[in-house]
Structures are given as structure tokens and as C-alpha cells.
Amino acid sequence: MAKTKVTQIKDEQGFYRLSLVLMAILAVFCVVPFILMVSVSFSSETALAHGYKFFPEEFSLAAYSYLWLKRATIFRAYGLTILVTVVGTAVNLLITSLFAYPLSRKDFKYRNVFAFILFFTCLFNGGMTASYIVWTRLFFVKDTIWAYLLPGALMGAMNVLMVRNYYNANIPYAIIEAARIDGANDVRIYTSIMLPLSKPVMTTIGLFAALGYWNNWTNGLYYITDSKLFTIQVYLKKLMDSIQFLKTSDLTSESAMLAAQSLPTESARMAIAIIALLPILCVYPAIQGELIKGMVVGGVKG
User: Fold this and answer.
1) CA distances (Å), origin 93, targets 25, 68, 142, 153, 201
2) How confident is the model at residue 249 (pLDDT cuts 50, 70, 90)?
């Protein structure tokens, strides 16, 4: 019996070491591209013609200098992106948790109907053309801030299921029954019991929603033509397209040709990516603990 226990401990230690090695390898694969991206952003275009290096072959701040000249527009785009992300994430969390709450209640009469509607959206959609017509001709979101908040971003079916599973697995129904006996209605139960006890999963869903809003450039591409309403992702995409156009177009003026050739292309692309990533890199470590807890517990079948 003792020998079996020792063998079991050794197997667990071996599995633990193997897991550490595998996670270390995965971490390297995640970090290395970011290091390469930073190195390229500080490299000159002439040095990049020979290929990417992990250390700048010829150090240059041309990409950041070029972006600094457009700082007023970039700061405005940043402000709009932050506004859209904060408001969109808050609304997303509210709608997701409100939808998940009745699905977690076995005494809810129309629970199966709403569950069917939720699953249906996972399997079918009207397509991009139909969505564009609905949002522009019925909801008039074109060239408004609502174009970033509404189309395809307010709620995700998988997020609702994750929150519902968390409710079922971690909030005993006896607490809800006790609140009912004390005279609490559903609004009071939702605000005083469900939300305070679901902080981990709400943090997880909030991060997913915030990343979705922060990285969303397709809505801006489809619905926004006013440059004053460009978010940081949309603006940087347009900026990159403009640089590429100048590089590849046939210019007749010699000064224009020299100016186009001096524009950073590869380094600017990486600098743009770093600018877009910085806020996420700053926020993520602060919520990492709640994020992991919410993903692990919320993914348990309820």
C-alpha cells in the first residue's frame, strides 16, 4: 500500500514537471512574437529589407516619429475607443447576466424557449448583407457611435452559458429560496445576491467583451465614413492603408517619390500594433486572478 502511494506521488510529480515544461514552451511561443514586434518597430526600413531580427540591426524611431506627428488624431481616436469599450462592456455585462439569470432558474416557465433562442443564434445568422441593411436602414447606426456598440457586440451566447453555469454551480438555490421567504423579488435577488456572488465570472466575461470592443475594427470599416468617429483600431488601419498606398502608387513628382520612400512601412505596422496593445497589457495583470477563477469555475457544467 505504501509503495503504491509512493508511486502515485512520483507520477503526480512527473506530470507536474511535464506540465511546467509544456507551459513554459507555450509561454515562449507567446512572448517571442511580441519581442520581435517591438524590435521591428525600433528598426529602420533599410535594415528590415534584410529580414526581421530580435535585436534592431539599425535602431530608428522613424515609425514612432511619424505616428507622433498625428498624435492629436490618435489621442482623439483613443478617447473614443475607451468610451466605446467602457460603455459597451458595461452594457454587455448587464444584458449577459440578465439573460443568464432566468436560464439558471428551474422554476422559470419560459426557460426552454429562451434557451432555444440562445442556441439558435449560435447556429444561424442572417449574413453580413442582411445585417448591414438592418442596422443602417432600420436602426440608422451609420456614422454614429452606436455602430461600435450595437452590431454583433452586445451579447454572446457562449458568455451567457458560462454565466448560467456559474450561477448553477456556485450559488445554491437555497439562498434564493431564503430570499424569497424574506420577501425579496427577482430584482432584489439579482442585484443583492447574484451579482455580488458572481464577481469572478463577470470579470472574465467583462474582459472578453472589453477585448472585443477594443479590437473591433470591422464595424468601423462597414458603418463609419466620418474620420472624426474613427476608433484607434479603425484609424490605425486607415493609416496603414494610406502608407501602403503611397509606397505602391506611381508618383510623378520626385519630391513626392522621396517622401513616400522615406515613410516607415514595416516598422510603422509594428508600432501601430504596440500602440493598440498597450492598454490591454496594462489592464490584464490586474484582473488575472479573477479571470482564471472565472474561466475555471464558469466552465463547469451546471
Assistant:
1) 34, 35, 24, 11, 10
2) low
Q: 142 is written with which cell numbers? A: 451609420
Nearest C-alpha neighbor of 229 from the set 240, 220, 219: 220
Q: Residue 127, by phi and psi: left (phi above 0), alpha (psi -120 to 50) or beta?
A: left
Q: How far from the centroid of its chain's Cα atoms is residue 290's Cα?
A: 16
DSSP label of 43:
B
- Among 113, 96, 162, 194, smallest CA distance to 294 is for 162
Rounded CA separation 227/237 (Å): 12
d(CA 142, CA 286): 35
44, 202 Cβ separation under 8 angstroms:
no
What whole-number distance in Å separates Cα of residue 291 and Cα of residue 212?
Answer: 16
Q: Dump pLDDT digits (tens) for 5-40.
A: 667 777 677 788 888 899 899 988 888 888 888 888
Mean pLDDT value of segment 188-215: 86
Counted residue by residue, the chain has a size of: 302
Query: Nine-digit cell at 215?
Result: 479590437
| Cβ–Cβ < 8 Å for 209, 93 | yes
In sequence order, the 6+-apart residues with CB closer than 8 A to the CB of 147 are 135, 141, 219, 220, 222, 223, 224, 229
Task: Kindly tell me the sign of the dihedral angle through the C-alpha atoms of 77, 78, 80, 81.
Answer: positive
Amino acid at residue number 142: K
DSSP 196: H
Q: How many CB atoms are located within 10 Å of the residue 82 CB?
A: 15
> Which grid cell is 39?
524590435
Q: How far apart are CA 176 and CA 186, in angstroms?
A: 9
- Coil, strand or helix at 152: coil
Among candidate residues 154, 145, 297, 171, the one with its CA nearest the CA of residue 230: 145
